[in-house]
Amino acid sequence: MTGTSAYITHTDDVLLSLWKNGDKTAFAFFFERHFHDLVVAAFQRVRDWHLAEELVQDALYSLYKNSSNLSNNPIAYCRNILKKRIIDSYRTKKFSLIQSQDFSEQITDINHNHVEYKQFEQKVHQLIEDLPHQCRKVFLLKREAKLSTQEVSQKLGISVKTVENHMTKALSILKEKLEYHVYLGIIIGINSYLL
Fold first, then answer.
1. Cβ(103)–Cβ(40) under 8 Å?
2. What value does the mean pLDDT of the chain take?
3. Residue 23 CB: number of other CB atoms within 10 A?
């Protein structure tokens, strides 16, 4: 069986092909690759961290369930589903606000979720800062600069294998230290592939 570090270099289309053929680890990698960014995007629209997570999980589940009908670009499908879920949530929330007499409670909930998200975001940034020096450089180039494994390898003058090892180490450290339910196996295989 191919080592799990090899999945890091796969494109989304390759991961799609693999999980359509029964490789659950491929979907776990796709999930980990996009989950945080999707949640942040959803949060910016719904202003509710927990709702954003639920909407993204629902979109990813829909993707997983309907992947046999896709030939490529799974993230585009997922974003389209997420957009529809966000619109639905607006309709539901608007109806709830009309029915509710206590608007101040709604505002308090929004502010609370915003503070909670900011605290979580600060914790993530601090954990990234605390990563070993080279490990942190690789992680930031991959995740924030969006460089490919090959590009990181060339930029830092290290082998592709070393880049993969640093990424695996960084993800393992974050998973272990965050102790946050996003990283505790809410989707198939998410725990196993980081071990």
1. no
2. 76
3. 17
